[in-house]
Amino acid sequence: MNEYRKKLTSKERIVVKVGTSSLSFSGGKTNYTRLDKLSMVLADLMSCGKEIVLVSSGAIGVGAGQLKMDEPPDNLVARQALAAIGQVELIRIYQRFFHEYNKMVAQVLLTPEGLDDETRFKNAQNTLNQLISMKIIPVINENDTVSTYEIQFGDNDQLSARVAAMIDADLLIILSDIDGLYSSDPKQNPDAKILSEVHEITEEIENSARGIGSSFAKGGMASKIAAVKICKEKAIDTVIINGNKPKNILKVLDGETIGTLFTG
């Protein structure tokens, strides 16, 4: 275990971001088994004394599932409506699973515009810190019914970084549908390798971070690198790992070499 990975074992305040692709099957249907396992892992971490904040995408996909859609529409207003439908169901799912592990959750909807306003920023910061002190897990999503940023651009990657900076988190863990940042696109280059550690975001790193994702999710690795850059400004470490196995979170916090660690 090298010194950078060893430092992860002592992280206390942790923001976990889970994307749509990690919450859904390839066809967009909600993966309840994975949601259950994620809830169990985060509940166990809280029981061990960690402070957990969850930033969760997936409302549009869940909303589409509620309406028996195979694909979400391209129309922005329709996707906002699906987000409104899906957000209710998504928080209900989290409530049910976390309740099984004796943990409470609270829903917090944020917008980038709101975080740019000093008063709203402070109010959100105070609310999150209060929930954390009450041993309640904030489940954060962008308020897609009034903001189009996440729908069009980010899949909550950058929102999770801004939340991490807002609450002075020790670590941001981004759950993705791939194992980490590769040296090049693994779909085009079979010799591409996972970069275990990245200490500086160079032009080469940014050029290797390409791709978008499923029809239910947008953002890709480029959005995650943008999130990393936000965290680096606050000296917050970020780890990108495969979210298909939520127990990978425990491996990160045990100092194992998994995913890509971006030092703060």
Secondary structure elements and their pairing?
Blueprint: H1 3-8, E1 13-18, H2 20-23, H3 32-47, E2 51-56, H4 59-66, H5 76-100, E3 104-110, H6 112-115, H7 118-133, E4 136-142, H8 149-154, H9 157-166, E5 171-176, E6 197-198, H10 203-208, H11 220-233, E7 237-242, H12 248-253, E8 260-262
Parallel strand pairs: 1-2, 1-5, 2-4, 3-4, 5-7, 6-8
Antiparallel strand pairs: 7-8
Helix pairs in contact: 3-5, 4-5, 9-11
Radius of gyration, in angstroms, nearest whole number: 17 Å
Output the CATH homologous superfamily. Acetylglutamate kinase-like
Major sheet strand order: 3-4-2-1-5-7-8-6
Kindly report the CATH topology.
Answer: Carbamate kinase
| SSE class | alpha/beta
Number of helices: 12
Name of the CATH class:
Alpha Beta
Total number of distinct structural domains: 1
